[in-house]
Amino acid sequence: MVPRSGLSLKFERGNLRGLLGDLSKVEPWLRDVEEVLSRIANLRRESIFVSKKRTQKDGIDGLLNSVLHRSIELSQGIIICVNAGCIGSTLCLVRAHMEVAAQLMWLAHELFLRDGSPTETRKSVLQAFLGTRDVELKNEGEPWFSTAINVLTFMDAADTLLGKGSLRKPYESLCELVHPNAEANLLYARVMKNKRGSVFGTTFAFSNHMLTTALLNLRRSLRAFEAAWEILQSKVRSL
Predict the structure, then answer these.
(1) Is 130 inside any structural domain?
(2) What is the pLDDT of residue 1?
């Protein structure tokens, strides 16, 4: 599928063979990610028309569609970075996508399992999508802004729905490759075989192992997003 932006949601096997050689180890994950992403992309709407009397359903529907567009753009960015052999950028974007998926999971947990009143539903939606740490923005008096929820709280809610360790543990492991920590910093260096020096470059970082790490986490994130989306759509239809 090609989105209206003109960017493909397909990995370029030719580029990847040039970077990695044999793709047999990663091909199943490449294919699976493309299939799930295609399904998610088909959910997207370019516009939503609301009734004269705007309802709570209209507002939630709009916010969900906006987050869906963000998820797809992050996925496009991941594919671009993978095709270019940029693993550091790929991992950063995968982590961002996992946060979006966990955000939806948190809201699904709040709305579906707690099954609150319309007032509680509105509060949960605003907390999920319009939270901010910008003190000035919150002090402007706009009623829809609230204190941002910690991303690990999102992750814990995802684990409640999907099973312990489903999202938080992989997310925290991925953070070690994204934060300026040892694992991230050492990706781009290799000690020479004669041990008389080191060589540096992105080609050392982009490997079957690191690409598999990125793809498995993206696959995990896409499937969590898809599951949360189904729960939330069911809830929105009942409003």
Answers:
(1) yes
(2) 47
The whole-number pLDDT of residue 151 equals 93
Is residue 34 assigned to a domain? yes
Residue 17 inside a domain? The answer is no
Whole-structure pTM value: 0.86
118 HSE (CA, 13 A, CB side): 6
Domain that holds residue 83: 25-42+56-237
182, containing H or E segment: helix 182-185
Across 47-94, the runs of DSSP E, i.e. the strands, are none
What pLDDT digit, counting tens, does each position of 18-61 carry? 989 999 999 999 999 999 999 998 888 766 656 666 666 767 77
Mean pLDDT of the chain: 84
Domain count, the chain: 1
C-alpha 23 chain-centroid distance: 24
Which residues, including other chains, have CB under 8 Å from residue 120's CB and lie 6 or more apart? 114
